[in-house]
Amino acid sequence: MPIISRESIENIRQNVDICDVVSTYVQLKRIGARWRGLSPFNQEKTPSFFVLPEKKIFKCFSSGHAGDVFRFLQLKENFNFQEAVEWLSQRYHFPLRYEENGHSARPPENDSKALLDIHQLAETFFKECWNASSVLAGRVKDYWLKERAFSFELAEHYGIGFAPPDDSGELLQRLRKIFTQEAISHSGLFYPSRTESVLWPRFRGRLMIPIRDIHGRTIAFAGRQLEGITPAQDPAYESKYINSPQTPIFRKAEILFGLDQARQHIQKDEVFLLVEGQLDALRCHSVGLLTAVAPQGTGVTDMQLHHLRRYSPSLRCFLDSDEAGQKAAMRVLEMALKEEMEIRFILLPKGQDPDLFLRDKSHASLKDLESLTCSAMAFALQHLLPQGMTSGIHEKERALQTIFKLIVPLSSIIIREAYLQEISQLMAIDYRSVLGDFEHFENQTRLTPIVSIHSSDHLHALPNTTEVNDKIHSITYDLLSLIIHHETLGAPLARIVEKAWLDEKDSHHALLWHLLENFREGTWYGWDHLNESFSPQECEQLYTLLATSDFFDNPLGTANLCLRKLHKDHIQKMMKEIIPSKCHFLAKGEEKILSHEEDIEYLIRKKMDLRHLLQNPPQLSPHDISQ
Fold first, then answer.
1. pLDDT in tens, 118-131
2. Does the model's pTM come out above 0.70?
3. Residue 170 domain boundaries
4. Which of 218, 243, 268 is the last residue in one of the domains?
5. Closest alpha carbon to 470 in 442, 505, 431
6. What are phi and psi of 497, to 5 degrees?
7. Which pLDDT band, with edges at 50, 70 and 90, does 288 fall under?
8. 325-341 average pLDDT score
9. Domain for residue 471, yes or no?
10. Interatomic CA distance for residues 588 and 500, integer angstroms
């Protein structure tokens, strides 16, 4: 299989800004020479993710992951190494050279790239159908312009298209000229049939809305039913909206429609606007509410809110005013509080939804909606007590218990007390009484922890401090760190250090020996080809070491101290093992029976040899490093 040349990989690694790539997923803040943010791999409230641009690596203390820009994309996008390199080459316009047995070769095809290319071709096809001069295309555009009151400029900007109602298979024919049957089947654009060669289009007679990932790549579609155009024989005819199914590049629970656009404006507005569906988000964007996002028709998930939290801690929930919309808002409230987001709710009059409310506005801002906005606790009480303060005492008690469940998981005492004070004021109950009931509730829940269906169980503990300190005092750890930060020490150390010198009980023993073997055999090609010789776990260990500070003022001197210590420990261990015996192993596989006099003489000679070695430990010179 053709592989990417080392020169191409190194060119990308040296010239692509890792902060630019990572900031697509994480809101980074500069801390000295490093950048810090919330972990993109785990849900956390205290930032433990660092990017070190001068070393072109990242380290996540929450998950333990570490690596370069390629490793980051492998973890976030589920790419293999080659796919990560190809993605970066396409994103940043770096040419790639492929090799096969030392000769140039054509680039191979990979699944993720094929699926992305399929969706790009499908989007082009749907836009062609939209722009056609046919009567059918005219009716679709009338629906967009007159019934939905959207502009053609908005359609162009968001890639709106039209899936024809017939099953002529034109899209499938185009795809088969380029892609394999397997890739087309995995795209989600077609229904599989009992006969593998027959595929039916999933979207027929529908307005097509591209769903894009954080990078703006089309990874799925939402299809809106069109009255009189969507065919009655369509399997999903009764559904007003249908979305692409789960695919290798489309994970519904993680994707928010419009986030690729909204995140570009969040630093200015600092507040995300959460709406119910794709067209609601498009309505918001059309009137200037550019931070609007929407889930994928399956309700909001904690992972989606976690993605938003990386960019901004503030959220405005702008859902429908009907009962279903308000229940959904309560679920969002619970998840937002667990993410420790500052959430407020925009409440519309009964019978209105965001699309209808904003339709007549040519421009809007969050300030324009301020009069309709209420706090998290005010919304919760309004939902839990439809009759307001005229509700009975038992209803109020049940409402309080429900709100206490939302507040208990919060780690900030200040935030909890602020919520409790607000509840006290809203319900006209003495604060000390509310606080007393809350503390009683909290004491009870300590014995029976509350588990929400929205909570995540994928949290990882921070590294154990004692374990880290033990590693720092290990000779093996110091040698690893020396080689990682000063690669010129690798080859000379590899020529001297013997495996028997290393302590097999040391957790870094195997990694150090593997690293020395690479230097000894001439297969250490640098950080850009780490994955060729080391496992993913070993790579993360090495990158973690690289992420630590270089604390060696005198690397050569420290290397010699480590060598003397290893050598001394090994010699002393051998001396302890020398005991009188009638049988001695003189060489590998050879043994000889000695007389008592010969035995004593042998032991004395052996100890003298070991003492001589002890007094003359191996040592590196500046000349060794310069070679």
1. 999 999 999 999 99
2. no
3. 111-243
4. 243
5. 505
6. -65, 130
7. very high
8. 90
9. yes
10. 15
